[in-house]
Amino acid sequence: MRQIFLDTETTGLSPDSGDRIIEIGCLEMVSRRLTGNNKHFYLNPERPNSEGAFAVHGLSDEFLADKPRFAEIADELLAYLAGAEVVIHNAAFDVGFLDAEMKRIARPPMAGQVARITDSLLMARNQFPGKSNSLDALCKRLEVDNTSRTLHGALLDAGLLAEVYVRMTRGQDSLVIEVQEGASGALGVAAIDLSSVVLAAVAVSADEQAAHEAVLAALDKASGGQTLWRRLA
Questions:
Q1: What's the Cα-to-Cα distance from 59 to each of 6, 22, 64, 98, 200, rounded to whole Å?
Q2: Alpha-carbon span 2 to 84, nearest angstrom
Q3: Which fold has domain 3-168?
Q4: Measured over all CA atoms, what is the biggest interatomic distance in the chain, rounded to whole angstroms?
Q5: For a tag site, which of 62, 94, 167, 213 has the least CB within 10 Å?
């Protein structure tokens, strides 16, 4: 399935108090590989940042003043997300803000606009119970380089999340084998006729046979006579 790793930055912590989204970053992954088909928006929230939020993301009211409003990018964003699994770290936070923005423009909630929403924070809590599972903590634990993260940024954090997700789900760093396909679609691997292969028979000495029987007898005793080779014999 096509996956989108999404992160937002906001003017504060509560959409119920009127806080708004000011940045959205999205990275696309298909078959566990980033495609480069990404989306990134800065938004005019039509309200000032809180001091605490500005300290986190560093996006000033002056910088955001000439950026588009959410309503102006909603169609582009929803077309991009359509049919995808959207992976978000602490999804309740971001989805709460996205749903509030959708409500303002009379659109259905996010869950009805995408294939599914996956919360990587819940995944991490199941995998690492009792430990800190912030994005920074996961980067350190899973050896993802986040040294460029001096301030939070939606696109940067979405990229870190994608790397963390791949490693949490046993990523392909050293496991994927790329195979080229020919024009016909068949794998370019020549068939091997094994009918002519003769297996060598290795003679076993009496001492080796006795040692082997001793090992089998010990296993048989330890298992209470439940070893398969005795029953098959």
A1: 18, 8, 7, 19, 72
A2: 5
A3: Nucleotidyltransferase; domain 5 (3.30.420)
A4: 89
A5: 62
**Structure token pair of residue 33:** 């590989």
Task: Identify the three-state secondary structure at position 223.
Answer: coil
Would you call 34 helix, strand, or coil by DSSP? strand
Burial label for 170, CB within 10 Å (0-12, 13-18, 19+), is exposed
Model confidence at 83: pLDDT above 80: yes
Backbone phi, then psi, for 172, in 5-degree steps? -95, 15
- What does pTM read for this prediction? 0.72
Query: Where do the domains of the chain lie?
Result: 3-168, 200-233
Q: Are 114 and 83 in contact (CB under 8 A)?
A: yes
Q: Which of 162, 170, 175, 178 is nearest to 85 (CA)?
A: 162
The set of catalytic residues is 152
Residues 190-196 have a mean pLDDT of: 59
